[in-house]
């Protein structure tokens, strides 16, 4: 009789399979890392990483602190960007063990599309900036542009190293989707597509930044370099794409299956649009199966006509008022030279929360 000791219990096998299915952005659990990653044995203890990510950790320990920072930036930026909407990116508050995501991030929804795109953009953005600040020894400033600047301008400073950021960031963040058991083919295609959209928005955010030189601030000469816009601006661009995202289906196109727009499948998916496979709930009521936490007790804006209005945020259920005391600096005076003194003033403001 053959030994059965090597056969895993059904529960354990299911958990392992699920960990592969929803591992695409599990690296975001690094946002909860408190210890400094400075030894190779630390890599295998990090939750949410697949084998190729652990290998990258071992070969480039210095990079991991930057990736931890990127994970924290994704969480903070996502929540700020959607603070005025029913879905406020609360899904990013994933379990410390990283074993399971809320369904809104695990079902191929437009919310998942946004988080994957933002995650891909953020990790490359953070790495590119770390090269500039000297936090990473394996990279330096970005290259000087080939074009000749206009009269009065000159290239200098330290450009953000976008090339290194994109190369290294994509290698790390796309690794889970390139594994054999990384969920359905449709989900894999969706996540890889949306991640690339995030990186495309990042590329387009590269702008010329300059510093003035000259007698008495005349700015007769400007030293310029290529730098990335702040993450909040990139996130707002991605939010616009989230609002106009295209629902897709997975069907044969030629010799293989591809993602095509559900309602207008005569055209291929555009490279600059976010795509999703599953419709989202309205996020009005709590529904754990759909990943909705609801909007009860969320603060709303009584005078707004946008998504943060009490009518839209509260889904027609109404709202309750309450008062809050604010202590602010006031009656500030500038004293020569060189400090400011202020008094403290109190005022009562009225707030509103959804029923």
Largest sheet: 3 strands, mixed
What average pLDDT do the residues reach?
Answer: 87
Q: Taking Cα atoms only, what radius of gyration do you get, to the nearest Å? A: 24 Å
Number of domains: 2
Given the helix and strand composition, which structural class is it?
A: alpha+beta
The rough form would be described as: globular
Order of helices and strands: HHHHHEHHEEHEEEEEEHEE
- Total strands: the figure is 11
Distance between the termini: 64 Å
> Low-confidence parts, pLDDT < 50 over ≥5 residues?
1-22
How much beta, percentage-wise?
15-25%
Q: What is the overall number of helices?
A: 9
**Strand line-up in the sheet with most strands:** 1-3-2
Question: Percent range for helical residues?
Answer: 25-40%
Subcellular location: Secreted, Extracellular space, Extracellular matrix
Main location: secreted
Protein name: Protein Wnt
GO molecular function: cytokine activity; frizzled binding
Polypeptide structure, described:
The chain is of the alpha+beta class and 355 residues long. It has two domains: 10-143 and 157-204 and 229-294, no CATH class; 319-354, 2-Layer Sandwich (Endo-n-acetylneuraminidase fold), CATH 3.30.2460.20. The protein has helices spanning 10-21, 51-59, 61-81, 103-106, 110-133, 162-173, 185-204, 231-243, 310-313; strands at residues 153-155, 206-213, 221-228, 246-253, 256-261, 275-276, 286-287, 292-293, 299-300, 319-335, 339-354. A hairpin with a 2-residue loop joins strand 4 (246-253) and strand 5. The longest helix has 24 residues, at 110-133. It is globular.
């Amino acid at each position: 009789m053959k030994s059965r000791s090597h056969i895993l219990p059904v529960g354990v096998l299911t958990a392992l399979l699920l960990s592969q299915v929803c591992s695409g952005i599990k690296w975001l659990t690094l946002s909860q890392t408190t210890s400094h990653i400075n030894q190779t044995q630390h890599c295998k203890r990090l939750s949410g990483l697949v084998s190729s990510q652990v290998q990258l950790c071992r070969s480039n320990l210095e990079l991991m602190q930057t990736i931890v920072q990127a994970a924290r930036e994704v969480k903070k930026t996502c929540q700020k960007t959607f603070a005025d909407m029913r879905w406020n990116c609360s899904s990013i508050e994933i379990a410390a063990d990283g074993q399971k995501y809320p369904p809104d991030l695990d079902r191929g929804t437009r919310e998942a599309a946004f988080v994957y795109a933002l995650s891909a953009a953020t990790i490359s953005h953070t790495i590119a900036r770390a090269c500039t600040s000297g936090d990473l020894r394996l990279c330096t400033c970005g290259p000087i542009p080939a074009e000749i600047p206009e009269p009065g301008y000159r290239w200098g400073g330290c450009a953000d190293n976008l090339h290194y950021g994109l190369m290294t960031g994509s290698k790390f963040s796309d690794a889970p989707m390139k594994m054999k058991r990384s969920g359905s083919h449709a989900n894999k295609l969706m996540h890889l597509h949306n991640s690339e959209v995030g990186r495309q928005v990042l590329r387009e955010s590269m702008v010329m930044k300059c510093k003035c030189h000259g007698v008495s601030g005349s700015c007769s000469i400007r030293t310029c370099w290529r730098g990335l816009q702040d993450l909040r601006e990139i996130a707002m661009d991605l939010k616009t794409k989230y609002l106009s995202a295209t629902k897709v289906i997975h069907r044969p196109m030629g010799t293989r299956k591809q993602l095509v727009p559900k309602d207008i499948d005569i055209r291929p998916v555009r490279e600059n649009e976010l795509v999703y496979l599953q419709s989202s709930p309205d996020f009005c009521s709590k529904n754990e199966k759909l990943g909705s936490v609801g909007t009860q007790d969320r603060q709303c804006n009584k005078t707004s006509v946008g998504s943060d209005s009490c009518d839209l945020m509260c889904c027609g259920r109404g709202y309750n008022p309450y008062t809050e005391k604010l202590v602010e600096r006031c009656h500030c005076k500038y004293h020569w030279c060189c400090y400011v003194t202020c008094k403290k003033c109190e005022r009562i403001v009225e707030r509103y929360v959804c029923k």
